[in-house]
Amino acid sequence: MLLNEQTDEHFGCNPFAQTGRSKLQNERASLNQQIIKEMRMRAGAENLLRATTNNKVREMVVLELSYVNSNLQLLMEHLEGLNSSVEVYQSVEETSSLPLIPLGLKETKEADFSVPFKDFILEHYSEDGSNYEDTIADLMDLRQDFILEHYSEDGSNYEDTIADLMDLRQACRTPSRSEAGIDLLSSYFSQLNFVENRFFPPSRQMGIFFTWYDSFTGVPVCQQNIALEKASILFNTGALYTQIATRCNRQNRSGLESAIDAFQKAAGTLNHLKETFTHTPSYDMSPAMLSVLTRMMLAQTQECVFDKIALPGIKNEYFCLCRMAQEAAKVCDVYSLVYQSMIQTPVKDHVPFFWSAMAQVKMNHYRALAHYFVATALLDHELCPNDDEDKQEKALSQLYDSMPDGMSSLKILKSKDDRKHLGKAHLRKAILDHEEALRIHNLCRHVKKLDILQEILQAGHKRSLNKYSEFNSENDFVDFIEAPQIIAKTEQKAEMAEPSSSKVKVTDFFQKLGPLALFSAKQRWTAPRGVHITLEEGDLGFTLKGDAPVQIQSLDPLSPAAIEGVKEGDYIVSIQDTDCKWLGVSEVMKMLKSGGDEGVDIQVISLMENTVSSMPNKSATYCGGLPKTYSMICLAMDDDKIGKTQKVTKKLAFLSWGNKNKQKTASTLSLPSAVAKTLPSKNRLSTAFSNTDSSLY
């Protein structure tokens, strides 16, 4: 197989390896299965509650619903705990840096491409399917007429190719935390673009169900739309970048630069996902949530920039302290934006409390550092005769939007008392901010587990207290002033970066089918027609044009070729049983004349008109009663219990989206028509979403 030529890294990590990260992912997968089980039970109980009029039965159902809802709440809290487990993702060398937040990978179920792809190759490329009859005998009775109509390729010839694609998808479930893992995901994403064009026609569904679990709620989304697969792979690419960033050793410059690069690429990937896939039904990939995640990655990038500048050590020097104060204020500002976006409805209902608490803690911590640096610059460095007065005045004036009442930057520099009063005001602010950070730290049980975070906050608080005690006097209350806000400024602004993996070049697994521009799912072809071509006085009776495959033109209607059945505009796909879909005019012409007077056997195909209108891909989804969520679940479908060759009746198995209203602010979920006919309209299952920023679907 093609994948056997690649290194072991391209098969992903060993799924059975008992690393901390693999244990978390396995636990996440187990939680997802428990959540779907409880949601099915809840949906069944709610249906029974609506259908029954027996009071005793209703009481029992209500009691059962309370148990199910309680179990669901516990499972959701457990899943939130997994999203709060950041320790296993940190670098093992990390001993004195604030923990960073990575994203967990989305979980998926296995998808079997073999039967649908083989059928489609037989159908759409019209080759002899006799070698495949034993393998898909139970399906041929349903699809034989359709198969013989369309594509003329032997599906069994592509078994290894399809297996390569499925192996690649399986490896993407456990990518390594390295550039090799990124390349693996990117390779599969690029292959999906080829697969979509080759096998997913706009006129019908392929019968392949892609199931992905919401990384925040654990609710699965099951669709036949390959866009869900592509979006989920893109999300996992961004998530893997965050895990690579948190793994970097931030105790050296190269590690910090690697972390900055990875976080910026994560932000770029997530932003690209938001702008490209705008109708994803999974809430973790909704525009509102992706905006929050992008901001969080940029904030962590800015934090790493601060660490890189501070890595050589912060000198107790006036200009250095002013510079570091503005760098710290910049980190504070970006975390403030992250926190404000996390507490907005409906994002706040799905973002782990640990995340918002960490954003708030870091916001206060870096604000405290900014005030401490300014205080130190004012209290420890008096203006001396040899100092550059204008330069110091300019540096101080650039720290504030406006100076405190009755003060000017030059007056503060020259007055020892003014420097002391303003410096102590900044220290008081630093102490209060660190106290607030410690208070929030103690409110969240997951944050409290981070001992290194508590140590850093306590050290900063103690440092500010000690500094304040050095300049404390009994008459402080007389000349109390409020410390002005510090202007944020940075020498390296965090920006979204295009992932280098987006430029990964891959070879189409199914290039043997022919050039993609012509041999795609959108084009319909006749079955190959065998024709014997002979030369008449050295002339074929037609000319050739195009690159690959070549097309017949200027056909003489009285030539032997026309009499044998060749038509104007036909494409030559085979000569003497040799595939020539990728051959040019000169090569094909040479092969046609190689038979001499005896002639050659060729196969030609004709392009058919596409008379079938495009059919929109519908999502097979159900809300399960979760408030304000796009993650839906199909209760009637259990992929684990369906064999590879078992027939699936889509009509009865899946719920489908209703039509959106003109404002696109509500989505209605309706039961399958076979069931809906037996129910009163008022009892049909429906869910309406509020008109919020995150419901712009």
Structure notes:
The protein has 697 residues and is of the alpha+beta class. The protein has helices at residues 20-51, 55-83, 114-125, 137-150, 159-171, 179-199, 226-247, 253-276, 287-310, 318-342, 353-380, 389-397, 409-414, 416-443, 445-448, 451-470, 560-564, 585-592, 650-653, 673-676; strands at 210-213, 220-223, 524-525, 529-533, 543-545, 551-553, 571-575, 578-579, 600-605, 607-608, 619-620, 656-657, 669-670. Strands 4-9-7-8 form a four-stranded antiparallel sheet. A hairpin with a 2-residue loop joins strand 7 (571-575) and strand 8 (578-579). Helix 3 packs parallel to helix 4 (137-150) and helix 11 (353-380) runs parallel beside helix 16. It is elongated, with a radius of gyration of 33 Å.
Describe the secondary-structure layout.
Blueprint (H helix, E strand, L loop, with lengths): L19 H32 L3 H29 L30 H12 L11 H14 L8 H13 L7 H21 L10 E4 L6 E4 L2 H22 L5 H24 L10 H24 L7 H25 L10 H28 L8 H9 L11 H6 L1 H28 L1 H4 L2 H20 L53 E2 L3 E5 L9 E3 L5 E3 L6 H5 L6 E5 L2 E2 L5 H8 L7 E6 L1 E2 L10 E2 L29 H4 L2 E2 L11 E2 L2 H4 L21
Antiparallel strand pairs: 1-2, 2-11, 3-10, 4-9, 5-6, 7-8, 7-9, 12-13
What keyword list fits this structure?
Rhophilin-2, Helix Hairpins, disordered C terminus, PDZ_sf, Serine Threonine Protein Phosphatase 5, Tetratricopeptide repeat, RHPN1_2, 697 residues, coiled coil, HR1_rho-bd, 3-stranded antiparallel sheet
